[in-house]
Amino acid sequence: MPDKLVTVASFDLAAQAHLCKARLEDEGIQCAIIDENIASIHWGYSIAVGGIKVQVRQANAHKALQVLQRQPPGAGPAENEDTERPAREPRCPACHSTDVYYHKLSRRLIFLSILLLGFPIPFLKRKWVCEKCGHQWKAG
Predict the structure, then answer these.
(1) Which end of the chain is more exposed for a tag (fewer CB within 10 A), N or C?
(2) What pLDDT sits at residue 32?
(3) What are the structural domain ranges in the chain?
């Protein structure tokens, strides 16, 4: 009796499945992509059938899972690359406070300008406002 095929990975996109297949074939594991055509018809069908599946022979399933769990070369951050960058908080240019908020335009004003003029008023700009000192500046 020939080996059964077992699913070792499932993907939403065909490109991801083909990358997985290439990794397995580089390790000498024969595999097949199943349900790719069904998924290309409509994405909803892909969900219904469980995605685009990569299948291998049952005898090679353990080795295939080990290959897929390893991180591919070049996928991680470079050794000298800073992995955690602190998020830049907006600061007031006058008092350097971080207690600032982004003042958005009124939806009513935008709606009225579109209704009356046929387009939004272009010269109104959004701006940052400092809670501490009240300073206002353009976003940018």
Answers:
(1) N
(2) 94
(3) 5-69, 100-138
